[in-house]
């Protein structure tokens, strides 16, 4: 199959995404409007018949004082990653990006390599000799993913550093997902561990009400989010970021981004944002107050969001990043502990990969990033 690559319009890009069962929310055209500090371009791959067969949203970050760029395709491009001629997909992309002034290319193949179900993770947590998820035998392994990794290495791509739990602009390698396809809601609920089911009931009894919010509720979200950032020791994004995100994503599709608020006695005590692309639904950002935790608003909110994802016909509810640490002294351990209660799966992706087009500038960027 002979492939050609060229810049396409946002409309072509969006139409192609809509023709798929799903794609990452970071590969929809509107994501470029969220990331205003980056330049952007929509790329399209065409087969010999002129048919659009793949797309990619490229974000460009300019180096200070020189017209050279880091080209980044977060959780993309959206191509056939298992194609035996993978090189024929990626070579024209590298040539195109180099011509655009890119000194380095970073991408995140949306390729799953391993899955661990909840019982396997729990066994790992209980084993004092196990400190990392990768030390636990996977429930499912995707052999084709190893072939993709081999092909990338042979082409000169380098595997990037682990993205931790995905705070900041580097995407997580490990995420937690609840599969919904082929299951009833009752089966999903029964998959929760005892503590989760008890907490959902507790929230219900206490009168916790989960409502869908709108743009005007974003300041309420921000207050809770900043409380969470202080508690969990991360740097929060400003309110303007979420306002921009809401406007940009919902202008593209009125149901792309949602906001949920868990209220107790009229006060919002937990909140979360949800993103939807086709059959994939993400719990994107979460926040909660330091008080009223005993009424379990976060569990109630997750259950409502899962039910809504199910009603939308989603095949997967994605709780996003986790660390691969199973060590209870690690400050990120709480993430996996909370999410494993849903009875879902830990999922390992291939991670992010770099291609240095200019080795000197790429090395300089590496040094700069490591000092941040």
UniProtKB/TrEMBL annotation:
<keyword id="KW-0808">Transferase</keyword>
<dbReference type="InterPro" id="IPR003447">
    <property type="entry name" value="FEMABX"/>
</dbReference>
<comment type="similarity">
    <text>Belongs to the FemABX family.</text>
</comment>
<keyword id="KW-0133">Cell shape</keyword>
<keyword id="KW-0961">Cell wall biogenesis/degradation</keyword>
<keyword id="KW-0012">Acyltransferase</keyword>
<protein>
    <submittedName>
        <fullName>Peptidoglycan bridge formation glycyltransferase FemX</fullName>
    </submittedName>
</protein>
<dbReference type="Pfam" id="PF02388">
    <property type="entry name" value="FemAB"/>
</dbReference>
<dbReference type="InterPro" id="IPR016181">
    <property type="entry name" value="Acyl_CoA_acyltransferase"/>
</dbReference>
<dbReference type="InterPro" id="IPR050644">
    <property type="entry name" value="PG_Glycine_Bridge_Synth"/>
</dbReference>
<keyword id="KW-0573">Peptidoglycan synthesis</keyword>
């Amino acid at each position: 199959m002979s492939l050609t690559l060229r810049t396409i319009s946002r409309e072509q890009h969006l139409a192609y995404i809509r023709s798929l069962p799903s794609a990452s929310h970071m590969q929809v055209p509107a994501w470029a409007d969220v990331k205003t500090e980056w330049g952007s371009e929509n790329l399209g791959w065409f087969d010999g018949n002129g048919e659009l067969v793949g797309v990619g949203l490229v974000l460009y970050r300019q180096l200070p004082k020189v017209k050279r760029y880091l080209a980044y395709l977060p959780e993309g491009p959206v191509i056939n990653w298992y194609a035996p001629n993978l090189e024929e997909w990626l070579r024209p992309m590298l040539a195109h990006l180099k011509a655009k002034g890119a000194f380095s290319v970073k991408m995140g193949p949306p390729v799953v390599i391993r899955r661990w179900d909840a019982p396997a993770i729990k066994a790992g947590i209980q084993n004092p000799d196990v400190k990392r998820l990768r030390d636990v035998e996977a429930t499912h392994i995707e052999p084709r993913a190893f072939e993709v990794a081999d092909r990338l290495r042979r082409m000169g791509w380098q595997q990037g550093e682990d993205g931790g739990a995905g705070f900041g602009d580097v995407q997580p390698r490990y995420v937690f997902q609840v599969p919904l396809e082929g299951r009833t809601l009752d089966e999903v609920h029964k998959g929760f561990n005892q503590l989760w089911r008890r907490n959902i009931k507790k929230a219900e009894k206490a009168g916790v009400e989960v409502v869908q919010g709108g743009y005007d509720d974003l300041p309420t979200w921000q207050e809770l989010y900043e409380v969470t950032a202080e508690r969990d020791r991360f740097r929060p994004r400003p309110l303007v970021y979420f306002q921009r995100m809401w406007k940009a994503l919902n202008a593209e599709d009125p149901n792309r981004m949602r906001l949920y608020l868990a209220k107790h006695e009229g006060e919002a005590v937990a909140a979360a944002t949800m993103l939807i692309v086709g059959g994939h639904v993400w719990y994107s950002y979460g926040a909660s107050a330091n008080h009223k935790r005993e009424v379990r608003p976060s569990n109630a909110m997750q259950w409502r969001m899962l039910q809504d994802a199910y009603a939308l016909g989603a095949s997967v509810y994605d709780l996003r990043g986790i660390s691969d640490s199973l060590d209870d002294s690690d400050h990120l351990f709480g993430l996996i502990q909370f999410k494993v209660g849903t009875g879902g799966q830990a999922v390992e992706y291939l991670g992010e990969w770099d291609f240095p087009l200019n080795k000197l500038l790429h090395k300089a960027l590496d040094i700069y990033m490591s000092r941040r």
